[in-house]
Amino acid sequence: xxxxxxxxxxxxxxxxxxxxxxxxxxxxxxxxxxxxxxxxxxxxxxxxxxxxxxxxxxxxxxxxxxxxxxxxxxxxxxxxxxxxxxxxxxxxxxxxxxxxxxxxxxxxxxxxxxxxxxxxxxxxxxx
Length: 127
Prior knowledge:
alpha/beta, Transcription Regulator spoIIAA, 4 helices, about 40% helix, globular
C-alpha cells in the first residue's frame, strides 16, 4: 500500500505545521516521509500528525515519528498525533510510546492545544 503525505503550514500559524498521512507507513514508505520532514522540522516548532487515514505502521514508520519528536523536543517544540485509527493506537500501546505523545480526540481539543502552544512561544504582545 502506498503512502500519501500532505504537509500544510497555515499562514496564521507561523510555527505550526500539520502533516496528514494516508495509507501505509512501512519500510518502503518511511524514507519518503523522512525526506519530506527534513526541511519542515527545521522551519517549525510544532507539528501535528493527522493519522485518520493511516491504515498501517511498521517499526520503520515508528522510527521516523520518534526521530521527528526527538528533534522537535530538542528545540523546545512539540509533536502531536491526531485522529489515530484503533490499530495504530494499539501499535503505540504495545511499544509503550503513548505516554510521550500528545494525542487528540477532537478538532477542538487540538485547536485549544495549538493555541496554547502558540501563546507560549509568541513574542510578548503578539497574541
